[in-house]
Amino acid sequence: MDALRDVEHRPWPIPARRWVMTQTWHNLLFAHWPVNSEDLQSLIPSTLQLDTYEGQAWVGVIAFRLSKIRLRGLPEMPLVSRFPEVNVRTYVKVGDKPGVLFLSLDTDNTLAVALARPWFRLPYIPACMSFKQGKDRVHFKSRRCGRIIRDARFEADYCPCGPAYYAPPCTLESWLTERYCYYSVGRHGRTYRCEIHHPQWRLQEARANITENTMLLSHGICPARDEPHLLYSHRMEALIWALRRTTDYGRQNT
Q1: DSSP state of 20
Q2: In which residue ranges of the chain is pLDDT below 50?
Q3: Tens of pLDDT along 213-226?
Q4: Who contacts 102 (Cβ-Cβ below 8 Å, separation ≥6)?
Q5: C-alpha pair distances (Å), 194 with each of 105, 134, 185, 240
Q6: How far apart are CA 105 and CA 117, in angstroms?
């Protein structure tokens, strides 16, 4: 995989184990809001530590579409190889390894929901979605459907509005995007890490008209300000490893 040749930007080495899945992400909108740390504490499992940038906590709504999803050594999975998604995430760490905590992931692919929940311990939720890519912008719309406790909707038109660049280390843009694992907490407080690898993000400033957004409210989150910090990325190929309990990392090679 070409992605394995591009590793100098990573904060820690690629796992010695084999990756298990690859997928490609397209037309990503990163919309982030600063939040009071106290407002997130009830959403953070006790085995994880909230990660902050210069003392400020952040929460993001990320809209995009996936394609070319396949398991190692196998062709693309026809029924789950491409679909749109919008996720709500914040940032946590275990020890010296910062990562992502997904609060929810909404998609219209019911098979992906059924598989991702047990395989990758991700809180996927079924939604009705549309993803339309025009000549110069994307229209994204999502509304949760089925028997759900909390409704959540997101609708936006968005596009890049600046030249592509690589965010310098230690900047907010790098801190928000250059994440190489996510954490999940299962039964009995067991904490899992999923290692991820991809090249450094090629980012652009973004413009978005967000006409509806109750994604944060569905988690009881009220941002410290209305206007989000916006970024766009056109495409990214990623490799994903199998989940491992964090307690196992001290016993075996990562």
Answers
A1: -
A2: 251-254
A3: 999 999 999 987 88
A4: 87, 88, 89, 122, 123, 182, 184
A5: 16, 34, 11, 7
A6: 10
pTM here is 0.94
Query: Residue 245: enclosing H or E segment and its boundaries?
Result: strand 244-245
DSSP string covering 46-78? TTSEE--BTTBEEEEEEEEEEEEEEETTS-B-T
**Cα distance between residue 240 and residue 2, in whole Å:** 14
* Chain position carrying tokens 């504490």: 41
Cβ–Cβ < 8 Å for 115, 108:
no
Query: C-alpha distances in angstroms, 167 versus 77, 174, 180, 200, 201?
Result: 33, 5, 15, 9, 8
pLDDT (0 to 100) of residue 249: 60
- Note the pLDDT tens digit of each residue in 36-56: 999 999 999 999 999 999 999
As beta bridge partners, residue 238 has 23
Closest alpha carbon to 142 in 117, 175, 193, 106: 106
